[in-house]
Design goal:
CATH class of the largest domain: Alpha Beta
Number of helices: 6
CATH topology of the largest domain: Rossmann fold
Order of helices and strands: HHEHEHEEHEEEEEHEE
Largest sheet: 7 strands, mixed
CATH architecture of the largest domain: 3-Layer(aba) Sandwich
Number of domains: 2
């Protein structure tokens, strides 16, 4: 991941241990709290800064290319499932009539603040029902991995397919496959601007067909205190074959494209057949 800005402080680790600030006896001894918070609850207000390295404009160009290549150049409506803070939709709203769906009220709060002209809906990607069909449905940035199990993946893909018009296009930017995920990988990300400093350390582990990444954050904002918190993200590890099979079983003509939006993940594209199973 790219480092932003030209700051000088880069911590080598954030450990739940006895790190102290000797110049400030009041600084907490345990720099990362023991409690693990729900995904995205505390992260939401700084999510866009943490992922400032991501090239959303390139993703949008790729979405348009896929839609044209799949025979839907005149598409008008788009549903983004697992939309988060809605950064993709802020760019897509000038090209489509957009709807964003996410289960996190914290993330949707940020999305609504910055995403005028988009309809925002709270819902679970596995079982939501909007009562309408779209020309394009997307599920991006590995969000599909949060379904965790293969039966729930199949159910989720059926739900996404049900919200497509006949001939409509489903684009899934997947989480890592079992062959690619590296257990024990340690990652450091730094966001450094004059007003905001963020350091994030992530440690990934695998148990069976799931991955768990523990993130420790230290966040400093000009004029405010330093905040430290921890989040745990657990996602399912699905093979390319399993995901293609889930799409085909849901009534989609499916293909896998190498490359995609995020390195090492590839991309799944499904076009809805005239009738669903």
């Amino acid at each position: 991941m790219k480092r932003r800005g030209g700051g000088r402080w880069i911590p080598t680790a954030l450990r739940a241990g006895s790190l102290r600030n000797v110049n400030n006896p009041g600084f907490p001894r345990r720099i990362v709290p023991r409690a693990v918070l729900a995904e995205y609850t505390t992260l939401a207000p700084i999510y866009d800064e943490v992922y400032a390295w991501k090239d959303y404009e390139r993703d949008v160009r790729e979405i348009r290319r896929i839609v044209r290549r799949s025979g839907r150049p005149g598409s008008r409506t788009l549903l983004d499932v697992g939309c988060g803070t809605g950064h993709h939709l802020r760019l897509l709203r000038g090209m489509f009539r957009c709807t964003g769906l996410d289960r996190s009220p914290s993330m949707l709060r940020i999305a609504r603040r910055h995403g005028r002209g988009v309809r925002w809906v709270r819902g679970d990607m596995e079982r939501f029902e909007l009562g309408e069909e779209f020309d394009v449905v997307t599920c991006l940035f590995g969000a599909i991995g949060y379904v965790r199990t293969l039966p729930r993946l199949r159910k989720t893909i059926r739900t996404l397919a049900r919200h497509l018009r006949a001939g409509g296009v489903l684009i899934v930017d997947p989480w890592l496959s079992p062959e690619v995920f590296r257990s024990g990988h340690l990652d450091l990300l730094v966001h450094d601007t004059p007003q905001l400093k963020i350091a994030r350390v992530g440690l990934g582990r695998r148990r069976g067909r799931t991955s768990t990444i523990d993130f420790g954050y230290a966040v400093g904002q000009k004029g405010g205190p330093i905040r430290v918190f921890r989040e745990r993200h657990t996602q399912g590890l699905f093979s390319v074959r399993e995901q293609l099979a889930a799409m085909e079983a849901a009534g989609l003509a499916a293909r896998f494209e190498r490359g995609g939006f995020t390195k090492q993940r590839g991309l799944f594209v499904g076009v809805r057949r005239s009738s669903l199973p």
